Amino acid sequence: MISLDTNVLVRFITNDEPRQAKRARALIEGNDVLVAATVLLESEWVLRAAYGFTADQILDALRKVLGLARMHVEAADKVEKAFSWYAAGLDFADALHVAFSGSAERFATFDEKLVRRAKKISELSVLAV
Questions:
Q1: DSSP, res 129
Q2: Beta partners for 33?
Q3: In whole angstroms, what separates CA 86 from the centre of its chain?
Q4: pTM for this one?
Q5: Rounded distance between C-alpha atoms, residue 98 and residue 125, angstroms
Q6: 127 φ/ψ angles, rounded to the nearest 5 degrees
Q7: Closest residue by Cα to residue 37 from 1, 81, 68
Q8: What own/partner pairs with CB < 8 Å and gap ≥ 24 does 70-74 have?
Q9: pLDDT tens across 116-126, in order?
Q10: Helix, strand, coil percent values for the chain (each to nearest 5)
Q11: Tell me: the pLDDT tens digits for 48-97?
Q12: Residues with Cβ < 8 Å from 125, sequence gap 6 or more?
């Protein structure tokens, strides 16, 4: 299994540099590959900030890629939970932070907006500090 860097995943999705995109496609389609949660976090940021993708476009692209036959994602259940919260309006980084909080009883933040939004969608208690 080969673990992917953000630049390979983004090149595969955007196809904006044809030679690198071709190499990324061959790698991803020809091998079992792993995408770490940290790569998803950075990929969302790059697609949003550098390429102007909307949240819907990002979710669509990431779900398609992660649905490929030989694609594996770290903690897929947590990532899917974060995807659903992102689709419901939570910031992607915040959604991943909460989803990956493991056995914690609560998630502490200074971000009041996160507290309000998370109360509506997360089973984990998110509290303002």
A1: -
A2: 2, 71
A3: 9
A4: 0.90
A5: 9
A6: -120, 150
A7: 81
A8: 70/28, 70/29, 70/31, 70/32, 70/33, 71/28, 71/33, 71/35, 72/1, 72/32, 72/33, 72/34, 72/35, 73/34, 73/35, 73/37, 73/40, 74/34, 74/35, 74/36, 74/37
A9: 888 777 777 88
A10: 60, 10, 30
A11: 999 999 999 999 999 999 999 999 999 999 999 999 999 999 999 999 99
A12: 105, 106, 107
Count, residues in the chain: 129
For residues 116, 40, 62, 66, the Cα torsion angle rounded to the nearest 10 degrees is -120
How high is the pLDDT of residue 124?
72
Its sign, for the CA torsion 60, 66, 67, 68, is positive
Position 15, amino acid: N
Domains of the chain are 1-74 (3.40.50.1010), 89-129 (no CATH)
| pLDDT value for 127 | 83
As a three-state string, the secondary structure of 31-91 is CCEEECHHHHHHHHHHHHHCCCCCHHHHHHHHHHHHCCCCEEECCHHHHHHHHHHHHCCCC
Could you tell me the two tokens for 44? 């969302």
